[in-house]
């Protein structure tokens, strides 16, 4: 499609982890520092992103589109969109956060990190371990020391579901 | 298990590794970003999760990021105290947190904290022998002064350390000062009792992690030429107090006394010129990184806030005038606490409420959710991990 002011809009293909392809305008991906550098330096038209699930990529592209349409008049609407955007299961939110960090989309990264922080704020140690699939590497002595020192750490929100 | 958690501190290249849902694929940077948005009590839990997280949370780089973030949104801390033997609430009616110096009693100090929306953070009690007063800093730490001497507390971690005794006469709130220098992440405590003190002035300074209980005072020979009323205020490496010549009439101010931390010298600051009644000065405080003098009109109906815009040439500017007409003026217990984004936070102690004063629209907005909280002192405090080395 030709436009008198911007010339022909460049099209770019992003390839998600499961080989699904997403075709979008190059101007959209420039919000990602990583992709911007790739496009500028290498003049590529297709970028493989094997580490990002297609499902995650769909979400991020949705954000990029909304963010590109952001004007002073629809600020409120965008804020609501952001709130809804992170209103997903924690597992998915972490996927998005990791991907956004990799792609270096700074504004969204801030928002995602805050959302993750809000979600884990009141969780107990055991719940956090389960959510992040971490097994304690402390000795049983150290572990019981923690329980003595900060019993409240092992209380609180025991809900380890990632919702 | 080891390898799983080790990845937290690995470089960002780990994000290219295969995806598993866990922090293991997160770079140290992103873990730091997320953790730095959490309050100290949540970090207390996370440090028990695994060794890598424990190391990350005590990393100086992490601590400074966390401090930078939490100082953007300080908490409001309420302090209430009661003498345990008399079991009677010792609410003071002056600006100062003053309690009768009964030696043979203990004082229970209840501290609770909320954020600006009124959501509670913590609630705990400390017990001191004898009486105790409080010196605020607006940083992470609070200093207590009383029969036991000086003690310092980080309310976020609940760490409490009793300091070494001063060589001079027992300290009081009057003539003491406690402050925080952000650039150096350093706290400074000064005990300068004024003309009745032959030993001059004593200073203690410390940074994060320093073993505070072993810290000693530095005796400075400079002598303060005035009686100092209330606690001092630290602005730009200078402490300021209200100074009086007459010890028995401390409502009349004769000077603003300054103590230069670099030169270790006392000096005085020229007061604002014009129609200025020294008896009407309520207090000194710091706002927008400047020294402010809070002044009440004769009928208590207006509050003027003067700012020392240029401390070298003593240029004072009457920056704000607040009409206090909507409050019960007979009790006149209204003190400004802070200035944020065009609003001044006011402590209306007599009505147990906090109000935001909108400078541009000249209107008040009350912070709700404070429930039936009562306090003898309330101020701002940054949530943080500052360690007293105990």
TrEMBL record, chain A:
It comes from the Eukaryota. Pathway: Protein modification; protein ubiquitination. The lineage of its organism: Eukaryota, Viridiplantae, Streptophyta, Embryophyta, Tracheophyta. Pfam families: Skp1 (PF01466), Skp1_POZ (PF03931). GO terms for biological process: jasmonic acid mediated signaling pathway; protein ubiquitination; ubiquitin-dependent protein catabolic process. Residues 11-68 form the SKP1 component POZ domain. Residues 152-163 have a biased composition (Acidic residues). SUPFAM superfamilies: POZ domain, Skp1 dimerisation domain-like. This is SKP1-like protein. InterPro entries: SKP1, SKP1-like, SKP1-like_dim_sf, SKP1/BTB/POZ_sf, Skp1_comp_dimer, Skp1_comp_POZ. It comes from Nicotiana attenuata (Coyote tobacco). Involved in ubiquitination and subsequent proteasomal degradation of target proteins. Together with CUL1, RBX1 and a F-box protein, it forms a SCF E3 ubiquitin ligase complex. The functional specificity of this complex depends on the type of F-box protein. In the SCF complex, it serves as an adapter that links the F-box protein to CUL1. Belongs to the SKP1 family. Residues 107-152 form the SKP1 component dimerisation domain. Residues 139-163 are annotated as: Disordered. Part of a SCF (SKP1-cullin-F-box) protein ligase complex. Keywords: Ubl conjugation pathway.
UniProtKB/TrEMBL annotation, chain B:
Pfam families: F-box, FBA_3. Residues 20-65 form the F-box domain. InterPro entries: F-box-assoc_dom_typ3, F-box-assoc_interact_dom, F-box-like_dom_sf, F-box_dom, SCF_F-box_component. SMART domains: FBOX (SM00256). It comes from the Eukaryota. This is F-boxlrr-repeat/kelch-repeat protein.
């Amino acid at each position: 499609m030709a436009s008198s002011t911007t010339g022909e809009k460049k099209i770019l293909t992003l390839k998600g982890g499961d080989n699904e392809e997403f075709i979008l305008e190059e101007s959209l991906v420039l919000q990602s520092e990583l992709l911007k550098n790739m496009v500028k330096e290498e003049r590529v038209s297709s970028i493989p992103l094997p580490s990002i699930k297609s499902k995650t990529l769909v979400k991020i592209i949705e954000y990029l589109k909304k963010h590109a349409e952001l004007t002073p008049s629809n600020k409120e609407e965008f804020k609501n969109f952001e709130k809804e955007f992170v209103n997903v299961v924690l597992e998915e939110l972490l996927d998005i956060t990791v991907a956004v960090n990799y792609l270096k989309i700074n504004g969204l990264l801030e928002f995602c990190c805050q959302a993750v922080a809000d979600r884990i704020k009141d969780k107990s140690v055991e719940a956090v371990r389960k959510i992040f699939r971490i097994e304690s590497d402390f000795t049983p002595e150290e572990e019981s020391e923690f329980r003595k020192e900060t019993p409240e750490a092992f209380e609180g929100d025991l809900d380890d579901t990632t919702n | 298990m080891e390898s799983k958690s080790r990845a937290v501190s690995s470089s960002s290249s780990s994000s290219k590794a295969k995806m598993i849902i866990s922090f293991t694929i997160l770079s140290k940077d992103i873990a730091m970003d997320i953790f730095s948005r959490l309050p100290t009590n949540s970090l207390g839990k996370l440090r028990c999760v695994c060794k890598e997280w424990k190391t990350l949370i005590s990393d100086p780089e992490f601590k400074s990021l966390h401090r930078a973030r939490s100082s953007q949104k300080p908490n409001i801390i309420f302090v209430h105290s009661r003498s345990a033997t008399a079991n009677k609430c010792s609410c003071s009616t002056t600006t100062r947190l003053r309690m009768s110096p009964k030696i043979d009693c203990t004082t229970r100090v209840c501290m609770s904290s909320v954020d600006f929306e009124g959501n509670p953070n913590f609630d705990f009690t400390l017990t001191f022998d004898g009486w105790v007063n409080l010196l605020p800093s607006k940083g992470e730490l609070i200093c207590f002064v009383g029969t036991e001497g000086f003690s310092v507390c980080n309310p976020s971690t609940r760490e409490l350390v009793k300091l070494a005794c001063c060589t001079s006469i027992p300290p009081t709130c009057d003539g003491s000062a406690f402050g925080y220098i952000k650039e150096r992440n350093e706290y400074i405590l000064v005990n300068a009792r004024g003309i009745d003190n032959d030993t001059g002035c004593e200073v203690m300074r410390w940074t994060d992690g320093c073993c505070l209980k072993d810290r000693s005072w530095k005796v400075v020979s400079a002598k303060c030429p005035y009686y100092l009323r209330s606690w001092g205020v630290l602005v730009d490496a200078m402490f300021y107090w209200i100074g009086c010549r007459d010890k028995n009439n401390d409502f009349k101010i004769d000077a603003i006394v300054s103590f230069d931390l670099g030169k270790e010298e006392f000096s005085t600051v020229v007061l604002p010129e014009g129609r200025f009644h020294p008896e009407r000065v309520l207090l000194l405080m710091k706002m927008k990184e400047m020294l402010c003098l809070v002044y009440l009109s004769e009928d208590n109906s207006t509050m003027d806030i003067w700012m020392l815009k240029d401390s070298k040439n003593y240029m004072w500017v009457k920056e704000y005038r607040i009409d206090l007409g909507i409050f019960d003026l007979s009790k006149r217990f209204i003190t400004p606490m802070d200035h944020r984004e065009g609003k001044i936070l006011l402590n209306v102690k007599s009505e147990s409420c906090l109000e935001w004063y909108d400078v541009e629209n000249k209107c008040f907005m009350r912070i709700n959710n404070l429930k039936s909280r009562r306090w003898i002192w309330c101020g701002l405090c940054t949530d943080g991990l500052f360690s007293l080395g105990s």
